[in-house]
Amino acid sequence: QEQLVESGGGLVQSGGSLRLSCTASRSISIYNLHWYRLAPGKQRELVAQMGVSGNRVYDDSVKGRFIISRDNANNIFYLQMNNLKPEDTAMYYCKMSIWWGQGTQVTVSS
Q: What does the H/E/C string look like for 12-44?
């Protein structure tokens, strides 16, 4: 059973930055990696994904502000979030294959 452990959420002012981490208990090198978010009253959306080869895809709403990255040696992947906006407020989840993190809350105040 895989366990993904997230960290890094919190409260930040508009324009600020946060970095989310997702630590796996197994090697991540062979998996595509994903970050999702779920805001109250909205559907879950895929924010960013990164392939094994390093290719990255972002939702239009975060392009130019968020960066997904991976550290295969330490089985951790990240979501660097810059220039945060109130509409980024959500619970953020990492996902690898069939496994999900527990979620971390990001709240951006205006």
A: EECCCCEEEEEEECCCCCCCCEEEEEECCCCCC
**CA-to-CA distance for 62 and 98, rounded, in angstroms?**
24
Length of the chain: 110
CB 26 within 8 A of CB 4: no
Please give the backbone phi and psi of residue 58, each rounded to the nearest 5 degrees, phi first: -125, 150
Burial 1-28 (b: 16+ CB within 10 A, else e): eeebebebbeebeeeeebebbbbbeeeb
Q: Which of 24, 31, 25, 17 is nearest to 88 (CA)?
A: 17
At 45-87, the pLDDT tens digits run 999 999 999 999 999 999 999 999 999 999 999 999 999 999 9
Q: Which two tokens stand for residue 13?
A: 């002012």
